[in-house]
Every structure is written in structure tokens, then in C-alpha cells.
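*** Fold description ***
***
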Amino acid sequence: MIRKKNLYKKPMKPFEKERIKEEEQLKKKYALKNKKELWKTQAKVEYCRGRAKALAKKPLEEQEILFRKLKALGLNTNTIADVLDLQVEDILKRRLPTVVAQKKLADTTRQARQMVVHKKILINKKVVNSPSYLVPLSEENKITLKKKAKKPKPKKEEAPAAEPQAEQLAQEPQAEAPAEPAKPAEPTQEEAPKEESKEATE
């Protein structure tokens, strides 16, 4: 596994009081997770300054390429001096949570960061969940909130109503059929000879 090179440099004086106080203020103002995010932003500023120094003696056409890239991010850079004058806050103001808070989609920058991490922010109808994303001017008006899709509630099936005539017939007592009169029982074969013998004795 190849280890990635650090994208930032730690300060030379780790316990400098004024620098620590300033970093804490920026961390709180722009809802940064830790100081590494601040140091990465400083590295981006130093990169832009280095490119400006390298292009100082180049033709204006090559310089314009750098200026256009920075202008697309919302940074007002028209000359090499403007690029050299860039500050860390200029980059922090173009981060996605900061822009979301400026557009009043969130009450605070910290809340905006939480919304970004929870994938509730869309740019051009696509989810962007990286708080360090630098918003270009062309995408600033395409930032929207993700809407919850409401699921339709299942309708309860109602039992069909019984017909009123059928209910009345079920409630009325059924009339009993008249009982048939009982038929006299026929004499059996054993009782018949007994009756004949009684007649003979008489």
C-alpha cells in the first residue's frame, strides 16, 4: 500500500500563542473539524502564491489562465499582486458549508456542515457530501436542499356493506312448520296371534 504524501505542513512553532488563538477563531467561525483542515487550506494558498511567482515573468496569456481559474472560484484576482495577497479566509469563504450558510439554507455554519455530511445538500441535483468542496460561481445558484420523498400510506380495505334485506331476513325469526299428527302404531307379528287366541277362548 502506497502511503499518500501529506497535503499540508505543520507550523514550525507548535506552541505559538497568537497563532493558536487565531486558528481557534477560524476553526470556530468556519466550522472546521480540526486544525488539519485549516493547514490544508493554507497549503492551497501557498500553492497559488507559488504559481503566481512562477508566472510573474511569463506572458500575460499564461497568467490569465491562473486568473480565470481563481475567478471561477469567486476569488477577485486580476493581477499577480492580487494572487500574492490571497488570505486563508478567502479560500474558507468558498467552502460548501460557508456558502450554504450564506444562502440562508442553514442557521449556522456548523449546521450547514452537518447537512453536507448527512447528504442533504444537492448541487445541480447531485449529492455533495464533502465539506472542503470549493464552490465555483457557476454552481452557487444550483445549491438546493434534498427533499424527503413522501411514501403513500396504504389504504385500508373496507368490508362490503351487507344488503339491508339480507340483514332483516337474518334478524326475523323463522316460522316453524306445523307438526304432522302422529300415526297409530301398527301391531307387530308377535302381538297379532295373541289377540286371536283371546277371541277363541271367549
Observations:
- The first helix runs from residue 17 to 29.
- Strands lie at 121-123, 126-127, 143-145.
- Residues 195-202 have pLDDT under 50 and may be disordered.
